């Protein structure tokens, strides 16, 4: 089966600067849940920006469903891939429902029609995404009046309304309380989509992901099932701390010291 996302020989750096990401090679099968972990500045968000076609690799290729993502139009890419980012829209006057409705834009014919009130099928998809993210009670409130966690759920609902095959999330559990963190990760797992998410919380990564990719200084340090990728040696190397993992319980417990 065609990989959902595949990076081959990818390097990236800002213009006029040395590479920040080097020699990145991995392939994510359709339906896989992958967490990307690593220290601050390791290159996680930069890697996601390459995957959601925000920036082009300096060398190498990023493929989405087998096609070079830069051979696709932005709209075609958005029909297959949705991104949930840490930066949120600045248009705080839009209601939560209007923001979720933006997820339908890549599927509308002609950008002008995208601003019209959604028709039957689109409206049903938007309402389903609102319901799924438990936003019904606040759907008509301006986005700017929502709490950080509620806004995060609106952004996930927008991604769901986009009906992508791949969903990329940058720190999706930021701002969420424990219950909403667990609910969001369970929901993402149950979608049957390919999911690539950066996560700082290694316990959540170990429980949620089938595969963990660990970056260090812009290179892949480990890539594999959580039990293998999240080893004491790898974590010590990735985060420059002493790491202990207690695997005696149902899920691993991580402890760290300097
Ligand atoms: N456009 C840019 N220009 C200059 N430096 C950049 C640019 N984008 C990223 N960097 C640098 O690249 C490195 C990796 O940044 P990135 O945001 O990808 O890290 P991260 O792993 O997501 O970090 P964090 O956990 O702190 O969010 C950082 O040192 C950052 O300052």
From TrEMBL:
It comes from the Bacteria. It holds the Pfam family ABC_tran. Keywords: ATP-binding, Nucleotide-binding. InterPro entries: AAA+_ATPase, ABC_transporter-like_ATP-bd, ABC_transporter-like_CS, P-loop_NTPase. Gene3D superfamilies: P-loop containing nucleotide triphosphate hydrolases (3.40.50.300). One of its GO terms (molecular function) is ATP binding. Residues 5-242 form the ABC transporter domain. PROSITE patterns: ABC_TRANSPORTER_1, ABC_TRANSPORTER_2. The keyword DNA repair does not apply. This is ABC transporter ATP-binding protein. The lineage of its organism: Bacteria, Pseudomonadati, Pseudomonadota, Alphaproteobacteria, Rhodobacterales.
């Amino acid at each position: 089966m065609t990989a959902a996302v595949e990076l081959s020989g990818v390097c990236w750096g800002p213009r006029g600067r040395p590479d920040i990401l080097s020699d990145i090679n991995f392939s994510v099968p359709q339906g896989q849940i992958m967490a990307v972990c690593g220290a601050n500045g390791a290159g996680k968000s930069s890697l996601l920006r390459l995957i959601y076609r925000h920036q082009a690799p300096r060398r190498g290729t990023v493929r989405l469903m087998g096609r070079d993502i830069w051979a696709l139009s932005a709209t075609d890419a958005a029909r297959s891939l949705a991104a949930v980012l840490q930066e949120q829209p600045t248009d705080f006057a839009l209601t939560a429902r209007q923001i979720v409705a933006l997820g339908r834009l890549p599927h509308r014919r002609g950008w002008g029609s995208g601003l019209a009130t959604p028709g039957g099928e689109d409206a049903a998809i938007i309402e389903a995404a609102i319901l799924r993210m438990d936003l019904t009670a606040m759907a008509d409130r301006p986005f700017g009046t929502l709490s950080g966690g509620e806004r995060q759920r609106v952004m996930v609902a927008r991604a769901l309304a986009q009906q992508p095959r791949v969903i990329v999330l940058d720190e999706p559990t930021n701002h969420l309380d424990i219950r909403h963190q667990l609910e969001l990760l369970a929901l993402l797992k149950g979608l049957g989509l390919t999911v690539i998410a950066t996560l700082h919380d290694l316990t959540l990564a170990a429980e949620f992901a089938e595969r963990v990719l660990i970056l260090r200084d812009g290179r892949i340090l480990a890539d594999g099932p959580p039990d293998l990728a999240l080893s004491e040696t790898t974590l010590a190397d990735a985060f420059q701390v002493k790491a202990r993992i207690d695997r005696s319980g149902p899920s691993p417990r991580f402890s760290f010291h300097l």
